[in-house]
Amino acid sequence: MTSEQARHGDVVASTEAVEASMTPQRVPVNVHETKEALVIVAPLPAVTAKDVTVELRPGSVRLWAHVRSAGPRDYLVHEWHYGGYEREVDLPAGFGGGVEATLTNGQLVIRVLRGEPQNLTIQPNQS
Length: 127
Description:
- The chain is mostly beta strands.
- The chain has one domain: Immunoglobulin-like (Sandwich), CATH 2.60.40.790.
- The protein is built from one helix and ten strands, in the order αββββββββββ.
- A hairpin with a 3-residue loop joins strand 2 and strand 3.
């Protein structure tokens, strides 16, 4: 095993340990209504679209992202992680007919479409 492979193995092990031991960070959101959808905007720094899951259920939408990377470090101050994000938002009546999501520059935008509630799980598009 090369030293690079060993370092990668250390980062993977550290990331798994951090994710197993942490409580996901509650993500703040802004929510507004358009003619076609309820729009939810949430900051998700340092994750990619493949790290994020959006789950639509009748009456709510839930988003979460796994820890991106948690290499072993000796922090002097350690107040947040890269990932381990989670949030559930209750939906008003009339929304849930579909869901779309994009992740751009650390900002997740979810559009929950009007219509009969559905069960859907998606990953956002990255733009």
